Amino acid sequence: MQALDLIAKRTGTTLVYYKFTTTGAELCKLVTRKRQDIYVKSLKVTLGNAFNII
Question: Which Pfam families does this UniProt record tie to the protein (predicted)?
């Protein structure tokens, strides 16, 4: 897992996210974990529009 530190480029910018329900968190444990380099790269590009990523 990789942590990202974000600083908003403009005042008033908010990050909306979804959190797993208790059931979703339990099901998540059953999924094989592997590196998702392409997903992380895409996420950084998208977040980079509104946030500075440290």
Answer: DUF2806 (PF10987)
pLDDT tens digit string along 1-54? 678 999 999 999 999 988 889 998 888 888 888 888 999 999 999 999 999 999
Report whether 43 contacts 3 (CB < 8 A).
no
State the DSSP H helix or E strand holding residue 44, giving kind and residue range, or none if neither. Answer: helix 37-47
CB proximity list for 9: less than 8 A, separation 6 or greater: 50, 51, 52
Q: Tokens 């950084």 identify what position? A: 44
Beta bridge partners of 6: 53
Both tokens of 25, joined, read 């968190």
